[in-house]
Amino acid sequence: GAVVSQHPSWVICKSGTSVKIECRSLDFQATTMFWYRQFPKQSLMLMATSNEGSKATYEQGVEKDKFLINHASLTLSTLTVTSAHPEDSSFYICSARAFRGSGNTIYFGEGSWLTVV
Amino acid sequence: AQSVTQLDSHVSVSEGTPVLLRCNYSSSYSPSLFWYVQHPNKGLQLLLKYTSAATLVKGINGFEAEFKKSETSFHLTKPSAHMSDAAEYFCVVSARAGGTSYGKLTFGQGTILTVHP
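The joint structure predicted for all components is written out below.
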């Protein structure tokens, strides 16, 4: 079945550096992918909608210059956390929608744990 | 290890009739459980969550779910379906392990709810 691969699963980076998280749809094309973040003891928060070939649509309160999203192909979206700080430590997860003949299904990556030290 | 099984990929009901979306989980640790809804072309929205308090959890839009440990289930119900309830629903488990405030999220594959007039 369709699979969304997210990499890396775990990443530790130093404060002030940038880190990139990839989200790949392995056997289907995804014109739209979603990026979410989970704060401690809270549920998922939608950060942005990633659109292939165009700019991402960010949710209110999400810093566009800090969380750079690129969707350069139909199977890959990347989230880059720039100048990371400890408060950016969180769980990030992507999802992608696969369109089939009889409808569509959304698939999730397994998530990426980011720790900024 | 943890997993989530949504027993029905599609559920179809008539407007005004009850809704039942089934979810079974497995987890090595005390789980938190969530139900999310996604309307077409929109991101996830939290319906309700269980985090070890009352086993019957009430959410938004008249939805509720009951945590049954003996049955490892967390089924979502609503007494009377509305046309606006038509969407895709995800059951999610998060296991708290080793003193962390939250664990890895595992999503079910989703249940598409169709509501007929």
